[in-house]
Each structure stands twice: as C-alpha cells, then as structure tokens.
Write a structure and sequence with these properties.
Layout: H1 4-17, E1 30-36, E2 41-50, E3 53-62, H2 65-78, H3 83-98, H4 125-141, E4 143-146
Parallel strand pairs: 1-4
Antiparallel strand pairs: 1-2, 2-3
Amino acid sequence: MPSLSELYQNVILEHNRSPRNFRPMPNADRHADGHNPLCGDQLTVWVRMDGGVLEDVSFQGSGCAISRASASLMTSMVKGKTREEATRLFERFHRLVTGTLPPDQAETLGKLAVFSGVSQFPIRVKCASLSWHTLRAALDEGIKTTT
C-alpha cells in the first residue's frame, strides 16, 4: 500500500503532466505575470470576475512540477469563490507551505494538503506559492508582474 507521501507525490506529478485550467483567457478582467528568479518558474494568471466572485481562473507558463501543480490546483480551488474566500485560502495555503499551519489542519485544505511536505524544503516554498502571489497581484492590481 502506498504511503501518504507517495500519494501526494502522485497528485503533484499528475497536475504537472496534465495541468487544469492551463490556457490563456482572452476575455479576462485581470491578469498578472509571476517569475521566480531562483529557479526560472514563470507564469501568467488570468481572472474573470463576476461581481466579487472569481468566475474563471486560468494560467499558462513554465516551471518545475511543484510550481505547475500548485497553479493547477489553485485555479481549480479558487474558481467560484469570492475574492475574500480566495484570499483566506491563500493565507492558509501559505501557512501550510511555510510550516506554520498546525499539522492537524492540513487536511482542511482538501487537495492542497499535497503540498504539506514543501515546508521541509524552504527553497521550494516560492515554487509552490508563486501562482498564489500572482493571483493576489491580479486581484489587487488588475495587471502586474510579481517576483
């Protein structure tokens, strides 16, 4: 029987191979570009709002498996949420990958819990959180580049 870490690794690899919402969005209200100069990850996040709700979210770019999987899962998790809900989810996710979220709360993040091991590799925190910071930049500024 595979271990929990093996299952988590498989989810990350699957989202890297077949990322969800991996496409440009020509009719987006907002977008932002993100770049991680430490490892070369770069992506664009697009958002289409309907009032205060993230009606559609997509991304495109290149990067490591953790970066692409995180962007894939992020777009799936925030779609249909309000801006405030997405912000709270980002804050909890960031606590998860930085190791400040209590271990018993990781599972409350659903599929995002697959990134719980990232906190053991500080250099990978930026990989996992780049898409989230880029989403926040798009929501805050409309059009922005973040590093």
